[in-house]
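To the wet lab folks,

You asked to see what we're planning to order before we commit. Fair enough. Below is the target structure as tokens, and below that is the sequence we designed to fit it. If anything looks off to you, flag it before the synthesis order goes out.
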């Protein structure tokens, strides 16, 4: 059993992830910003905690993380305002990494996206540019830490059913169901072969456990 903190606990992927973790005996804390979402989170078996990751400082985050074994960052500003995107997807994410180290919690899984890279190629005129910049910088920062990190890069998200099958490191981005992403996160947390790896993936033909275990 592990104690797992999901940041962004009311997101579509997080709401699918929490029941998977709870069903295997893990204790899950789901960080949410809006108290009105608490009841929906409780249905998943997770314990909702209201916490403003955008405004709380590093010591506050460390107190939140303390006592857990693993952190899953599945939060995001949701696009729109570039300043808020930077504040959440880069600044708050980095604070959470530093806070995890302060709290003595080494395992950290970042849910990013397939194309996250300093060479993302998104022009400044594109509304997606601020998000691409923030995610690339946050992922780079995480890779330079001493944490036991994994960066997950799912391709375009769909509402399809979870097949339990993916393809890792395909030549191009495709699509992947949120249900499969949730299964990938759950397996990543228990698969040592995912440590200190960036794993990009689409829906595919390979069972998730086998795909993540393979180098």
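Sequence we intend to order:
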């Amino acid at each position: 059993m592990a104690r797992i903190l999901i940041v962004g606990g009311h997101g579509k992927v997080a709401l699918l992830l929490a029941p998977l973790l709870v069903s295997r005996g893990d204790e899950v804390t789901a960080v949410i910003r809006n108290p009105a979402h608490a009841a929906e989170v409780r249905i998943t078996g997770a314990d909702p905690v209201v916490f403003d990751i955008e405004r709380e400082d590093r010591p506050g985050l460390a107190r939140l993380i303390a006592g857990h074994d693993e952190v899953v960052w599945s939060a995001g500003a949701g696009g729109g305002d570039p300043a808020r995107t930077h504040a959440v997807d880069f600044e708050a994410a980095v604070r959470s990494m530093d806070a995890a180290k302060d709290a003595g919690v080494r395992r950290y899984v970042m849910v990013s996206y397939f194309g996250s890279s300093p060479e993302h190629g998104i022009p400044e005129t594109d509304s997606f540019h601020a998000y691409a910049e923030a995610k690339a910088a946050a992922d780079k920062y995480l890779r330079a830490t001493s944490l036991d990190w994994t960066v997950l890069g799912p391709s375009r998200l769909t509402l399809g059913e979870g097949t339990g099958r993916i393809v890792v490191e395909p030549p191009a981005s495709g699509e992947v169901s949120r249900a499969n992403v949730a299964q990938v996160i759950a397996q990543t947390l228990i698969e040592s072969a995912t440590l200190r790896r960036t794993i990009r993936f689409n829906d595919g033909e390979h069972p998730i456990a086998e795909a993540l275990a393979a180098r």
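Structural context that might help your review: The longest helix spans residues 82-103. The CA atoms of residues 66 and 103 lie 5 Å apart.

Thanks,
Computational group
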